[in-house]
Structures are given as C-alpha cells and as structure tokens.
Amino acid sequence: MINEKETAQRVIEISGVNPRKCMKCGKCSATCPSYDEMEYHPHQFVDMIDKGQVEKLLDSESLYKCLTCFACIERCPRGVEPAKLIEAVRLVKIRQQGQNHLKADMIPDILDDDMPQQAIVSAFRKYSK
Length: 129
Description:
- By secondary structure, the chain is mainly α.
- It contains 9 helices and no strands.
- Helix 1 packs across helix 7 (82-96) and helix 3 (42-51) packs across helix 7 (82-96).
- The protein is globular.
- The chain starts with a helix and ends with a helix.
C-alpha cells in the first residue's frame, strides 16, 4: 500500500494541477453551488492535497457532492482548477476499490450497438489502472 504523500502525488499527476499555485483566497468555494452540502470545500481539497492529506478526502462524502460544474475553475484567479483535483481523487478512490477494474476480455460482453465507441475507450482507460 502506498502512503498518503505518494497518493497525493498521484492525484496531482492524474489531474495535471499544481496545488501550490493556490493563494487560498476561497473564491472557488464561494462560487461552488454544492458548498453547503460539502464537508470539505474546493479550497480545502486543494490545500489538503498540497499537504498530502488525501485519506480524509478519500473517505469524505464531499467527493461525491461536487457537481463538476467547473465554476471553481472559472473563478480561480490563479488557474488552480480544484474540480480537476476532486475528479482525480474520485478516480483514485475508484481504483482502490479493486472490483472496478475492467479487463480487455470483458469488453465484448458489455458492448451495445447504441453505445458510442468513445464511451467504451474512456471506461477502459478509467477502470483499467
């Protein structure tokens, strides 16, 4: 099992976001439509990832309260993109659950003529690591 600092680094790699750019102004949280529903707000996600405190985020319901509306991204004066960090933490959580892995030989069973090919490729990328 990898430690919290390594998990935080993995989240940063997945998201492509530099949390150190955050100046902790809170504008991202102020514009968040899910603010009242979240235990940890967008600016707190950024700060906790920067500090390597990912375990609390992985166990938080706030992870699923984010609407991924990108209002926080639009509002950030430094271009930190908190929603991308939240999505990366979600992805780490999914990958840790183990049963969500998708193998290439499973794809023919789930194919549907109406399913866009892009959705299949996206699911394979998301659930194969």
